[in-house]
Amino acid sequence: MPKIAIRVPDDLSKQLQAEASKRGFDSPSAFVRHAIQSELRQGDSAVNQVEERIAATVNRLAKEVRAVHTAQLATFALVDAFAKVFLTCVPEPPNEMVDQAKARAKRRYEKFLISVAQGMAGDAKGALKELSRVDS
């Protein structure tokens, strides 16, 4: 049997000796051999387990992304349908009233944003406030 020599700190050597006698090994070397064999046997299965957990996580995240994508498409379709109905049913103001209409619309839009922000929680509320500043 080939010999492999390693150096360990004193405190680790004491731990090895104590653990070897506690577990019933003949010597610290026998304990180290057993630990190496166990690691070699379980090393591949541990890697496989990690890979399986990562694959499961990726699959779960892919399902969640698909769900969000579907919701986004539905939201876009709803907004598109609403815009078509709105543009069809609401007449444009007369030319002499355009500036007043824009000012009233801006005030109503600001109230709308405040109402939406009150209904939101967390970071989305801050993002909405940032968006409302950009449009001004």
Question: Short description, anyone?
Answer:
By secondary structure, the chain is mainly α. The chain has helices at residues 10-22, 28-89, 98-119, 123-135.
Keywords for this structure?
0% strand, 4 helices, 2 domains, mainly alpha, 136 residues, rod-shaped
Describe this structure in words.
This protein has 136 residues and is an all-alpha fold. It folds into two domains: 7-90; 92-136, no CATH class. Helix content is 81%, strand content 0%. It has helices spanning 10-22, 28-89, 98-119, 123-135. Helix 1 packs across helix 2. The longest helix is centred in the middle third of the chain and has 62 residues, at 28-89. The protein is rod-shaped. The termini are far apart. The model has no long low-confidence stretch (mean pLDDT 85).
Q: What percentage of residues falls in helices of 4 or more residues?
A: over 70%
Percent of residues in beta strands: under 5%
Q: Look at the helices and sheets and give the structural class.
A: mainly alpha
- Determine the mean pLDDT: 85
Major sheet size, sense and barrel closure: none
Principal-axis shape equals rod-shaped
Oligomer description: single chain
State Rg: 34 Å
Number of strands: 0
Can you tell me the number of structural domains? 2
The termini sit apart by 81 Å
Low-confidence runs: none
The number of helical elements comes to: 4
Would you list the SSEs in sequence order as H and E? HHHH
